[in-house]
Amino acid sequence: MIVAHTLQEFLQSRSQLQNHSVALVPTMGALHEGHIAVIKKAKELSHYCIVTIFVNQLQFDQLDDYLRYPKTEENDIRLLEKNQVDLVWLPKAHDIYSKNFCTRIVIEGPALNWEGAVRKGHFSGVATLVNRLFSLIKPTIACFGEKDWQQLQVIKRMVEDLNIPVTIFGVPIVREKNGLAKSSRNKFLTPDEHEKASLLYKTLQNSYKKIQNNQNISKVLEEAVQTLESEGFKVDYYAAVNSNTMTELRKWCQDGRLIAAAKLGSVRLIDNM
Ligand code: AMP
Fold first, then answer.
1. Domains with residue ranges and CATH for the chain
2. What positions carry a catalytic annotation?
3. Each residue of 171-198: pLDDT tens digit?
4. How far is ligand 1, taken at its centre, from the CA of residue 69, in Å?
5. Which ligand 1 atom is nearest residue 184's CA?
6. What is the distance between the alpha carbons of residues 24 and 48, in angstroms, rounded to a whole number?
7. Which residue's C-alpha comes closest to atom 16 of ligand 1?
8. Which atom, in ligand 1's list, is nearest to the CA of 29?
9. CA-based torsion, 79, 83, 84, 89: positive or negative
10. pTM of the model
């Protein structure tokens, strides 16, 4: 596995991966089994696999969240090596955004609500980075986790709207034993919170069953929020949406998806099913 730091090192290594398909998996590091599942899928679908590790300040709406984002570089590199990644790039901000960089991608449609409404500028930051990575790395495909379901729809929209020649694949959510979606931020949960955090997924499962039994959606969603808040969660949103457009559903349909975000203690959790 080649480890590149600077843009120059990266471009030089990238030029050695020619004549075959290249998959990109963008990450912010602090890697866990969720990331590894995305990498495994990327390797299955492509000849070469490139992983980036970059904590993109542009997508954080809270400075303290950015500053405390976990960094486990040595461990990440070991894990990537073990999983036979071909090239990992750990750029610095100036490798991605040059001194005079002032272009932003702004996406409407699927980016407007939910994460987009709660975390102002978040999707613009994500899209600006991902577009930049696509133009520097020129991958054939790129893989993203379904844990960030809305992000996956936003990226697909951008690729289609801007005719970017990359095929996007989603990879199912990897969960901990108790059902909690794996996340780099889970390490900030106390043991008690960690146990309680699984209630988010259990509540989604419960709501889904009720909806399948034709119960009224608004009532089901309202009950779910009450359950979570009575257990100490601070719910940002809990909704039924069209899986692609991310518009709110009043009536369930085949394309329906339940999405949720809530804070437990100091940790913000997101999940969907
Ligand atoms: P991050 O490092 O949090 O930006 O995540 C990098 C990629 O891994 C994103 O496409 C995430 O959606 C994906 N990912 C993170 N956690 C999980 C998980 N538990 N299951 C599946 N994919 C995940």
1. 2-171 (3.40.50.620), 184-272 (3.30.1300.10)
2. 35
3. 999 999 999 999 999 999 999 999 999 9
4. 14
5. 3
6. 9
7. 34
8. 2
9. negative
10. 0.97
